[in-house]
Design goal:
477 residues; eleven-stranded mixed sheet; three-stranded antiparallel sheet; 14 helices; 20 strands; 33% helix
Length: 477
């Protein structure tokens, strides 16, 4: 199937022929649907903390954090293509919908208006205005969301990446240092570096802290081969194979390289303004405090099991009630140990108000247990879709992760993925149809074998910007 030149190309990607053969086999047989049993809900998989319990968790984090290594991990790789899709349709194809009308009517309310206005010719028409947003001018159509101006302040506008500096200062600072890691695309890295070098001194002075900023790029060894509609390798005009980035699930490798006790994960576009950040800050600390408590209890029980002679019943009760893993009737100490000795993630879940995104579900596992996972609609079998509609909550990507074991050693995170939860999509290249394969999503199958706790958090912690008009929502004004 592969020529000598192919083998060299595969090796240059950091892949093996065996790995590529598995990818091609995945195309041929497809991926199975998730064996979901029901949607998680309050009292059945979604933990609802009282105000007092929340306050206790916040206090626990505040008390413990300076003895811990903490990192805020922000996936910021993608270009803002979807955010400006409607604008490109107007500029390139003259398609004008309600979104363009809304944009033009409210243009002065966007935080980027002063920058844009300075670039426009006198008496610019609607098309010139929109073109200056996405093309020559602000050139936002070729930039990542992190470098788009989101919010206006008296002291000056902020880009999305700057709001993560403000957030990091609020909840991810330990011993006066906020460590923030951004995953970026190679072509955008210089833009991030230049902006942050310019802005960090201001934020350090403002918050009285120091920042340690790091970057990583998606590894080429996580790319997947593209195939033709008949599942044979897709070849480009020069005869070479085509490899494509395999989605955000590939970032589990980047996360695996982070050396920290606690890792906060939040998407680049899910930020709000200083005046509305209170709930976000409190909830992040609350989730971290809950993580610390559950981790400490897990470690205590693990040690008791390792010594031997421990009563199994209270440990099983903790696993079922607090770690949300349903055990089979015939569990033994080996299974309890295996369940306790895993990475932990505590995930904020918001009430379902019709926003797009995956939801919390109970899933059957091969070891006889049932555990919680975040599932996207593409992972749910058609006959199980009513379960998706019955979900009370959905995933805003608000995670706090414990990635070290009871001995303080980092878990090897790729070992806790479920390779059966990838998915296949139809794409094109050079005008030809192809099939592409994505790895299990970062907060879906890439964390399938973690211990997962879902916690109800207020909708005020969720303010994503999926299209440019979202910046007109009150969370961004």
């Amino acid at each position: 199937m592969f020529t000598e030149k192919d083998l060299q190309q595969i090796a240059a990607h950091g892949l093996t022929t065996e790995a590529v053969a598995i990818q091609i086999e995945n195309f041929r047989r497809g991926f199975p649907f998730l064996p979901v049993t029901r949607a998680a809900s309050p009292s059945d998989g979604v933990t609802v903390l009282s105000i007092e319990e929340g306050d206790q968790a916040v206090a626990r984090y505040e008390q413990a954090k300076n003895a811990l290594s903490v990192v805020k991990f922000v996936p910021a790789s993608g270009a803002a293509t979807r955010m400006f899709k409607e604008l490109f349709s107007f500029v390139n194809e003259d398609k004008r919908g309600a979104g363009i009308d809304k944009l033009i009517q409210n243009i002065e309310k966007f935080a980027f208006w002063p920058e844009l206005k300075a670039l426009l010719p006198e008496g610019a028409d609607d098309k010139q205005i929109v073109s200056a947003i996405v093309k020559e001018g602000l050139n936002y159509g070729a930039k990542p969301k992190g470098l788009v101006t989101f919010h206006a302040y008296k002291e000056g506008a902020r880009k999305a990446v700057e709001e993560h500096l403000a957030e990091g200062a609020a909840y991810a600072t330990t011993n006066g240092v906020a460590r923030i890691h951004f995953t970026v695309s190679p072509e955008h890295r210089a833009g991030f570096t230049t902006l942050l070098e310019e802005k960090i001194p201001y934020y350090e002075q403002r918050y009285g802290i120091r920042y340690e900023i790091s970057f990583s790029e998606q590894k080429s060894s996580t790319d997947t081969i593209a195939v033709n509609p008949d599942n044979t390798p897709f070849r480009q005009d020069d005869g070479s194979l085509l490899f494509r980035p395999a989605g955000h699930g590939a970032l589990i490798e980047n996360l695996n390289d982070i050396d920290a006790d606690i890792v906060f994960i939040k998407n680049i576009d899910n930020v709000t303004t200083d005046s509305r950040r209170g709930d976000t800050t409190r909830c992040k600390k609350m989730l971290a405090g809950l993580l610390i408590e559950l981790q400490e209890r897990s470690f205590e029980y693990l040690k008791a099991l390792e010594v031997g002679g421990a009563e199994l019943e209270p440990i099983a009760e903790f696993i079922e009630q607090r770690l949300c893993v349903k055990l089979p009737e015939n569990y033994d100490s080996a299974l309890l140990k295996a369940v306790l000795d895993r990475p932990i993630r505590v995930c904020g879940m918001v009430r379902n108000e019709g926003e797009p995104g995956g939801g919390p579900f109970w899933v059957k596992n091969a070891d006889g247990t049932e555990s919680l996972q975040i599932a996207e609609s593409s992972q749910i079998a058609p006959e199980d879709m009513p379960l998706m509609k019955s979900a009370t909550h959905f995933n805003p990507v608000d995670l706090v992760c414990g990635v070290k074991n009871s001995k303080g050693v980092k878990f090897n995170l790729p070992a806790y993925t479920d390779p059966e939860t990838g998915f296949i999509s139809e794409k094109s290249a050079g005008g030809r149809d192809l099939r592409a394969q994505e790895l299990p999503g970062l907060w879906n199958g890439a964390m399938a074998k973690w211990n997962t706790i879902f916690v109800d958090v207020p909708i005020t912690t969720f303010s994503p910007v999926k299209v440019v008009q979202d910046l007109l929502r009150e969370q961004h004004q």
